[in-house]
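Table S2 (text version). Query chain:
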Amino acid sequence: MRKLNENKYKSGKVITSFSNYVRFINESYSYDSDEINRRIRRAILWININQGFYAELISHVNIFGSTELNPPTIKTNGRDIIFHPDFIMKQSDAALRFILCHEILHCIGDHANRRMGRDLIGWNIACDYAINSLLKGETGFENPVNLDGSRDILYDERFEGMKAEDIYDFLEENGELSRLISSSKIKSMADSGLVQDEEMETPDPEDDLVVQEGDDDDIIDDEDPDDNEPEDEDGDGDEPEDGDGDEEGEGDEEGEGEGEGEGEGEGEGEPGEGEGEGEGEPGEGEGEGEGEGEGEPGEGEGEPGGDKKRLPRVGQKVITRDGREGTITKVYPNGDIEIS
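Corresponding structure-token output:
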């Protein structure tokens, strides 16, 4: 993850860029940066409490504002979410939540790298049709105010469950794409939450509009999808399960290791203690054999539980537990996936 330049965190009245100078001398060009930052952080807090899936993803990206953003809206390049302060001040709290989740779905969908020469406006339209069906009707969300003052979003029930490439091809083959691209109303809706190619130039953050610096983990895993650990069709991943086994210390992420005692029996215990049969606390499971010593959580034989789970993404190749190979075509907000 690209780190923001440290000098962007300086406070006070120091003029560090031409845009800051223009804003400083032009009385009509002003905004309340504290209020803007507070409202965005409040929206992120609400998402953390109520929408854990989106909250985890949002924590990985940089979020900052710039008065040089044109059009004056909000957009992402897959690693940054960049907003214009005027656009933020037009939105309600519920609309800000929608916008942030809308942009993070562009990120997890890797839309900044999948355009492949398609028309940029048309690609934004297709991507919006793909992701807005996931957000429409969610409790606590509201359609944002677009640049033309409307509150409509790009949504069509025909495209629910479809990926952006298929939507783009459908619109193009049916002669709808050129009409949508040339419509000022459609463009206004598409502009209210843009995605641009990752290599395109982005404006620098304003000193007083840095809301969040993301962590070092990329939201999109750049490794070969074939090298990823297998995930099952329901998107449950590789979490170890309680169950039958003849190995010592087989169990969940916590409490894996060799336990005390020998023999076969039923019992509950602290993570890492005892081998038994039946249901119980993490680390319990059925198994036969002997073990000596107490194991710390995560030690011993069994599936590794300490590694950070990779996030699924559209287009990623996976192998399910029943041996099926396929490509992820849709990622649901709860983490479930569909494959083809």
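Notes on Table S2: The two ends are 30 Å apart (CA to CA). Strands lie at 62-65, 74-76, 80-83, 192-195, 210-212, 317-319, 325-331, 337-339.
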